[in-house]
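Revision sheet: structure tokens.
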Amino acid sequence: MNLDKYTLGQYVEGGRLWPFVDCYGLVLEVRRDLGLPDWPEWSEMRKADGGFARACDEMIQNSVTPCEPRHGAVVAAYRGSVQDHVGIVVEVNGVLEVLEINPRRNVSYTPIRRFERRFVRVEYYR
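Predicted:
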């Protein structure tokens, strides 16, 4: 897995075509690169109208399995009771970190514990 590829990502709300992606688009790209099963694109969903959070909640309830942090696990992060952000766990030099993208910093690798401190609740799924 070429982690350098992801430094080229540029945040675009609703983006699904690499390198112009939002947080969910980044997760989809990494899952493809890892050879994991495809997840829905939800290209019509936007965070601002709540559609993305509703779709994620439904998928969490019906289609994915909770797990511990591990390479390839998707991270669902909550602010209050609303799922607000996603990332994906990758192994960087033998250490698990969350690969994420946002409008301020674009792509970043964040240590798991630091990522978890930013949110009310964090869950991991495979």
